[in-house]
Amino acid sequence: MNQTKPKHLPYHLFALLLALDVTVLLIEKTTSNRAAGEGWQLAVSYLVQPLMWSIFALKLCQLWTWTIILGRVDISLAFPLTSLSYPAAMLAATVVLGERLSWEVWLGGMLITIGAAVMGPGESNTTRDIHAAAQPEVPS
Amino acid sequence: MPDRGDERMRPIAVIFLIACILVETIEQALYRMGGRHRSRYLAFVVPAVSLHLAGLGLWLLVLHWMTLGGALPLLAVTNITVALMGRLVFGETINRRRWIGVMLIVAGVSLVAMHES
């Protein structure tokens, strides 16, 4: 069976990846706000928070999503696009945490967004090794 | 605010920073291979995660010698090395549009990193 090359970016997977990224950052910020003490006390105050442990689970989901994306899309396209987590995190920090950011940071976020738009989906996969495992190595 | 690092870049810090960038580039290459060869997924992803931890150690050493505001913007170069790796190792085609996008993203990430720390 010939697998057709996906022409478009898996937007839903990218959206999931960015959402996971921002969620992890928000949880890290929340747990570090709640943590207190010094030395071992500080370490323990991190580890007793259930939220802290959810980070590991979320990181595993991220890893899984990321490798699926790389299975379908050029890494020279996918990797730079993950920088979209910067503007996404900036929005989340402003809206959820009420942080205030300098104009330079917003300008940087805009540059990243414009860069991502310029790259665009284009031809999202330019190599042939896609689905290497899905296709049996014996001739059909 | 702890006054870590030197205003001038120490050669050792630069060497470790370059090592960080190389480690992450190799780590990403392994993720890509894991994603493309699902039958040998763990054979690629486990070393990649180990490299990630090694890279974290290197990064903490870099931060011992450099300020975060000085080191983090330079780490954005990883976008370029990963794209180059995609082209040279995996034969991906990078057209002019894609390069311009990469450069804009590197500039943006550097700007954010310089001012958020």
Q: What do these coordinates show?
A:
- The complex is a heterodimer of chains A (140) and B (117).
- Chain A is an all-alpha fold and 140 residues long.
- Helix content of chain A is 64%, strand content 0%.
- In chain A, helix 1 runs antiparallel to helix 3 (50-72) and helix 1 crosses helix 5.
- The mean pLDDT of chain A is 85.
- Helix content of chain B is 78%, strand content 0%.
- Chain B has 5 helices and no strands.
- In chain B, helix 1 (11-36) packs antiparallel against helix 2, helix 1 packs across helix 4 and helix 3 runs antiparallel to helix 5 (96-116).
- Chains A and B meet through helix 3, helix 4 and helix 6 of A and helix 1, helix 2, helix 4 and helix 5 of B.
Proportion of residues in β-strands of chain A: under 5%
This entry's quaternary arrangement is: heterodimer
Strand coverage percent of chain B: under 5%
* Structural class category of chain A: mainly alpha
Structural class of chain B: mainly alpha
Counting DSSP H or I runs of 4 or more residues, the number of helices of chain B is 5
Helix content of chain A: 55-70%
How do the helices and strands line up, and which of them pair or pack?
The complex is a heterodimer of chains A (140) and B (117).
Chain A: H1 11-34, H2 40-47, H3 50-72, H4 75-81, H5 85-95, H6 103-119
Helix pairs in contact in A: 1-3, 1-5
Chain B: H1 11-36, H2 41-65, H3 68-75, H4 78-88, H5 96-116
Helix pairs in contact in B: 1-2, 1-4, 3-5
Provide a brief overview of the structure.
The complex is a heterodimer of chains A (140) and B (117). Chain A has 140 residues and is mainly alpha-helical.
Structure characteristics:
heterodimer, A: 140 residues, mainly alpha, 6 helices, B: 117 residues, 78% helix
